[in-house]
Write a sequence for this structure.
């Protein structure tokens, strides 16, 4: 299903809606052909109570999953912004070092931003980025570790630079963790079974106007499809057309290239 993320959102949703509505209406057609509206109406009172209770439970589960996935998506966005912010902060702080050291650090930061923007974020959609594969970051860490306090104008600047480079490494780790954070299969199982039961339950409410029942069942199916597709999209923050924007890192990279 990952190919759906690469299509425009409206097209992916339209395709899914057509499939799910076709299946749900086929089930309704089969039930109404086998049981007339008069036979189904006998159970309306009890069925309505059970349907309301089940619908409430399912809505709570869905709302919780949407909340969790949205928080994950929002955290991924903020972590990338903070990663870009730390990069530009270190770039400007490096200007206080001697020219030879300053150029070395600033060039390394440009390489890092370029690697993140041009390679890492694109590779994250397929899960190809390893937590320990940051070559550009390793070079930066090695540079700072070999400088020593004598290369810095003062001890405070060196200490602050170490804190910032460590924060940069931390935000990179958080970005990678966000890309790997997927909903467990058991939760998807609950969501899908709940969706099938919810839609199937509407088959046993007999309406004299069959066309109206088709429309109501279709509306419910489309709504559930939309919500499940939203969850799937939010669960893949660095994939597809709705992925987290890499614009902050691009802007930082352009600023540093001009300032070097």
């Amino acid at each position: 299903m990952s190919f759906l993320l690469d299509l425009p959102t409206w097209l992916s949703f339209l395709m899914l809606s057509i499939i799910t509505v076709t299946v749900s209406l086929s089930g309704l057609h089969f039930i109404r052909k086998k049981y007339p509206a008069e036979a189904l109406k006998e159970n309306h009172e009890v069925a309505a109570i059970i349907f309301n209770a089940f619908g409430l439970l399912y809505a709570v589960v869905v709302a919780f999953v949407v909340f969790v996935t949205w928080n994950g998506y929002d955290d991924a966005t903020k972590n990338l912004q903070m990663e870009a912010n730390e990069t530009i902060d270190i770039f400007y702080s490096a200007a206080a070092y001697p020219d030879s050291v300053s150029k070395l650090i600033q060039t390394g930061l440009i390489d890092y931003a370029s690697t993140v923007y041009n390679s890492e974020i694109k590779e994250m959609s397929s899960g190809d980025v390893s937590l320990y594969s940051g070559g550009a970051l390793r070079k930066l860490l090695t540079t700072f570790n070999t400088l020593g306090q004598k290369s810095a104008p003062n001890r405070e600047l060196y200490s602050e630079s170490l804190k910032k480079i460590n924060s940069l490494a931390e935000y990179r780790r958080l970005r990678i963790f966000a890309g790997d954070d997927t909903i467990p299969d058991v939760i998807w199982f609950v969501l899908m079974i709940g969706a099938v039961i919810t839609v199937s339950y509407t088959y046993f409410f007999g309406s004299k106007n069959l066309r109206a029942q088709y429309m109501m069942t279709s509306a419910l199916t489309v709504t559930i499809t939309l919500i499940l597709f939203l969850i799937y999209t939010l669960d893949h923050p660095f994939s597809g057309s709705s992925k987290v924007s890499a614009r902050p890192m691009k802007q930082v990279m352009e600023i540093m290239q001009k300032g070097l």
Notes: The longest helix spans residues 44-93. Residues 149 and 169 are 21 Å apart (CA to CA).
